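A reminder before we start the practical. When you read a complex entry, don't treat the lines as separate problems. The point of joint prediction is that each chain is placed relative to the others, so the output describes one connected object in space. Small molecules and nucleic acid strands, if listed, are placed in the same frame. In the example below there are two entries. Take a minute to note the order of the lines before looking further.
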Amino acid sequence: MSLLSMKNVSYRYPINNWKSLKQVTLNIEAGVFYAVIGAGGAGKTTLCSVFRGFIPHFYHGELEGEVQLFGKNLLQYELADIAARIGYLFQNPFTQISGAKETVFEEIAYGLENLGVEPAEIRKKVEDVIALLKLEKIAESNPTELSGGQKQRVAFASVIVMDPEVIIIDEPTSQLDPQGTEEIFRIIDLMKQRGKTIILVEHKMEWIAEFADRIIVMEDGQVVMQGDTQSILSNPKVMEHGGTLPQYAEVGLKLLGEEGIHQVPITRKQGELVFSKLQKGGAE
Amino acid sequence: MAILTLDQVSFRYPNGTNAVDRISMSFQAGEKAAIIGQNGAGKTTAVKLMNGLLKPSSGTVTVDGWDTKEHTTAQISSKVGYVFQNPDDQLFHETIYEEVAFSTRHLNVDAAEAKKITDTALELTGLTEYATLHPYSLPYSMRKFVTIAAVIAMQSKVMILDEPTAGQDGRSLERLTRITDYLTGIGKTVITITHDMTYVANHFERVIVMANGHVLSDSTAKEIFWQPALMQESYIQAPPVSQLASALHWPGRIVTVDEFVEYGSGQVLERKDSM
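Here is the predicted structure of the whole assembly.
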């Protein structure tokens, strides 16, 4: 049985007269890293909000169809019970930082404190996460005085410290530079290695190609394609659906059929292998 | 004549740190340029000095003949429009139409002209069909275009876009390109801050690299993305096709998909000829 699932799910926000999700059927399996891609307004964030229970527990509107979380209907949950099992990292780290705490250490401890965990245990868990995410240098800093990239890592730490089974991450790197982006993907990869189920909304295709297991393509409120990363990110149909491909696949598709080019690479490593055949004196 | 000039400009925060240190750059009417660099490099400080939100601690910023120190921020911002990084910092109205139309109140135009300016800005940004909606009924990526439309409607001579590419998909990037090209085509100067190096390589002739409050380079994408030392110093990464071409030791300083494909196909032809 799937860890999370949607069956014929449609949803309309109270503010809108159109549906942001239309008849979505989707299964999320344990331990798999999914990337959700597609144009702005395709329904990616809405999809995440349903799995996290913000819809319908926080946003009302009209929800149709059936959503199952860990074998139980979404409507039978309290929001707090979902929070314990599904962590959520928002696009804008400023949304996540509580503003109530004076140090990064306290900020990360905040969620555990609210659950009434023993202080000694809190200390240990927070120290572990700080070491894992290499936040030692900023542990005593004020969260509001950090750079965007640092804030995003602290927000991520606050999610990880709760040890959720599923981590949903909505465009974590859109405000970050390459260095900040790399750090976030390093953490996501770490979580994947620890067996977490990950749902990531992201536009940076070269990074997704390196790390994700499966891709879900959305357009106009529907899931229009899904499959393993290699087959989806080398498929030109993704672009017809308003998505983008890694640049390596773009050049691969244009050179496909030229002598020696039989595959579409999606990563730089694959690109080096595939295109070295084009060079004079290259592999025959 | 230059429409905007920064001459040896420094800006020091009250705690004494230099956010930008003796930077100089100059822009012509109708020119577009990209400013790139790591977070904290001084990019946003530089553009805030351009539109008068900040006044230089030393050096001179001249906008359309005005020294920014001698004019109010409101006066300067009528000449230099600024689209903030986060659209939610500048959306206040009930409908998208009102949001954009509000900008025309500062212009000396009658109602009919104001409507025309508003409609043009909405059309250019692809928002005409959403004009009656609340700005927050649109997703983040589209809300950004509402703020861009509002700044276009101000009709300033210079327009600054701070991270317009963040979280945008392929179609939105195309729309952004169309908007930029239209504006430069009618003589506006467009300055874009971005982390999207593919977007920079595809669409910008002039690229300015900043690091630690300094301008490290003011040249072209081809110059910048093939200088490993410069990229390392400024923590920028070349577009994926440049990285791949570099790993393959391909010549010609490739920075775009088309250049890569052109060279790749050429190799095939040469091999066939030599057989």
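Discuss with your neighbour: Chain A has a mean pLDDT of 91. What might explain this?
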